[in-house]
Amino acid sequence: MSEVFDVVVIGGGPAGYPCAIRAGQLGFKVACIDAWLNRDNTPAFGGTCLNAGCIPSKALLESSENYHRAQHEFAAHGINIEGVTVDLAKMQARKQTVSRSLTSGIKALFKANGVVGLEGFGKLLGNGEVEFKAHNGETKTLSAKHIVIATGSEPVNLTKIAAFDGDKVVDSWGALDFTEVPKRLGIIGAGVIGVELGSVWSRLGAKTVILEALPTFLPMVDVAVSRDALRQFTKQGLDIRLGAKVLSTKVGKAGVTVEYEVDGAKKTEEFDKLIVAVGRRPTTKGLNADGLGVALDERGFVKVDGHYKTNVAGVYAIGDVIGGAMLAHKAIEEGVALAEQLAGHHTQVNYNVVPSVIYTAPEVAWVGLSEEAAKAKGYEVKVGSGPFAASGRAKAMEQAAGTIKVIADVKTDRILGVHMCGPYVSELLAESVLGMEFAATCEDIALTMHAHPSLSETFHEAVLAVDGRAIHAVNKVKK
Question: Which residues does UniProt mark as catalytic (predicted)?
Fold first, then answer.
């Protein structure tokens, strides 16, 4: 006999657990299966994000940034610190505490919303049934009208060039667990993950080289803003080499030898540790998606329609496993949207207004189109920039580097995109997202009062600059 539910969610990460919670709130009988095991073999909900990605990386970014400021910024405030050192073991323990506090909270949320949390593996059996296999090997069958695949993603392993060995060559999870600061650190990939991890270990003392095959830095970010970010990171000591295609790696007792090519010339570098951060791929191993006939695309992502339905009746998919922006907040919104659709509500996710952030210092954040992308789509655009150098608040913080750029449509005055590099722009971005969600025009933001002194004034200045009206910066266009 199978245990009967209304909804069974396979995967307890940022897509799965919110879907399960919202479904529980809507009156469904729900089970959420998750297979995650931490290094010490303890199970935990929350997926990569809470256990080995978003949260632990932000904990280390915060700790390493505080160390960097103590060394290089506090003196400007008249705070003199001599002999500041790093206790990496304590830093790692704090990271773990932050992560575990959040993952344990999911169980409490499950209990409060009537969700049955099951720790182990889920396998599609067909006919509305799922096999659950606990970590101790015990199995049972669950049945449900609605089965949701939310199995997430995993790091891409360059098996032929730089295969993970868990020691010298590691993925993003391994890069968060170093017990010593490498003297020389190599990173393949200058995307979000590569730059964040590079920032952590560079601040803590590692001589860090990032090898990026693409000729441009952060191509998804507006060119002016990405150039500004690259300049700031280089000034901090990150050695970012663009157009560097890795050809091979060789692991030895002392470290890793990396051979790469730049402008047709082959070069080699020696590193103590090498992080491979070239992207993520969908996790479907053991799910039996192929066996059940669930359609996958050429890259292994589960194919869904606009309502997250797969080609198999009663089976849905959300989050990283369906592709698109591999971001926790995008996955959360899909999970909630699907649960509400199952209850008959009319909901949808606006994929044109998905925020993105790199949590370095300065931070990089963006939403919507860059100037280049807007022009490529046929828009006639007008742009404006607000530098943090003109911000009294940023100067008082000793963090006046960076800028905010606004891209708007000439014909409608609507904001098409906002791209930022500067202090705490991860928080400033929310105003841009909300404005674009409500189809705000530059005039709407220009007429909105912003507190002084605040970092948010820089966004206001950037919007004013779009029409040559900036007050605290020189206008390039006057009308």
Answer: 452
* Residue in 307, 452, 460, 472 annotated catalytic: 452
Could you confirm whether 452 is annotated as catalytic?
yes
Ligand-binding site membership of 191 (annotated): yes
Taking a C-beta distance cutoff of 8 angstroms, is the pair 230, 240 a contact?
A: yes
Distance from C-alpha of 434 to C-alpha of 213, rounded to nearest angstrom: 35
C-alpha span between 20 and 24 (Å, rounded): 6
Q: Which tokens in the block code for residue 251? A: 């692991």
- Distance between CA atoms of residues 15 and 328, nearest Å: 7
Q: Smallest Cα–Cα separation from 462: which of 446, 438, 444?
A: 446
Going along the chain from its start, the domains and CATH numbers come out as 3-155+281-349 (3.50.50.60), 169-278 (3.50.50.60), 353-466 (3.30.390.30)
| Residue 109, CA atoms < 13 Å, CB-side half-sphere | 18
193 is in an annotated binding site: yes
Using one digit for the tens of pLDDT, what is the confidence trace for 356-413? Answer: 999 999 999 999 999 999 999 999 999 999 999 999 999 999 999 999 999 999 999 9
Report residues of the chain scoring pLDDT below 70.
Answer: 476-479
Residue among 43, 87, 96 nearest 66 (CA): 87
Residue 328 marked as a ligand binder: yes
